[in-house]
Structure formats: structure tokens, C-alpha cells
Amino acid sequence: MSPGSIREHRGSSATAEGIAEWREFIEVANQQPAPHFCRVVRSGPEIVGYLCGHWDESVILGPMYLLSHAQGQGLGSRLLAEFFTWAGPARIRLGVADYNSRAIGFYLRHGFEITGERYLWRGRMPTLPMTRDAPTADIS
Description:
Elements: H1 3-10, H2 16-31, E1 36-43, E2 46-55, E3 59-66, H3 75-87, E4 92-97, H4 101-109, E5 113-114, E6 119-121, E7 125-132
Parallel strand pairs: 3-4
Antiparallel strand pairs: 1-2, 2-3, 4-7, 5-7, 6-7
InterPro entries: Acyl_CoA_acyltransferase, GNAT_dom
Domain N-acetyltransferase: 1-135
Protein name: GNAT family N-acetyltransferase
């Protein structure tokens, strides 16, 4: 393959700048956990829920959703426990619809605190910001 055909098929990753960007990406990825987390829960072939999150300047949890018939069975707690393990000792932020009292209660039970005033997410959805600090190790 010629350099021209490589560029055509692989885009900017084949240029000197693209190679430098990939090297930087790999170095960063080796120094910190993966920037994205997403788990899907199935009941047979049906997807009944999911939880996603990512690293930004801190860890962002969201979105998280379970179908109503899958709620109350511990699935959300198991997803969240896996997310906490992935996030490690980082503060976690999320925004929850301020009218979703069930979700707010769920997050409060899992160590989140309401941290600010309500805001409109994307100018439409009233959202309540919450955070959770990583639990401290019990040194007894």
C-alpha cells in the first residue's frame, strides 16, 4: 500500500500528527483507568437496564436506567457496585431528574449527597446535582 492509500483508508491516524495523537492517547490510557464505562443488564434476550459513566475532570455517572419490572431486585445496586469499583477512589458526580424521587432515594442510600441548586439540563430537564466521595478505608 502506498502512503496515499493508507491515508485514504485510515485517515489522519496515518499522518505524523495522527501518530503523535495516538501515542499520547495510549500513554494517558496506561496512566489512568479507561475513560468510559458501560454495562447492560439482560433478562434473556431483553435489555432491562444499563449504567454508563466516564472520566472527565472527575468521574461522571450517567445515564443509569432500569425498566420498572427490573427495579427492586438489587440489579441497580449491583451495577452501581461495579461502577464504584471501576471508578476507584474518585469523587463521582451525577445529575438526576429532580422529579424522580425513587432515583434520588436510591442515590442517597448509596452515599450520594445533593450538592447544589437545580438546573435545566440541555435547557429542558430540571436536574439535581449529586456527588459521592470515595469511602475512606477503615483503619482500626
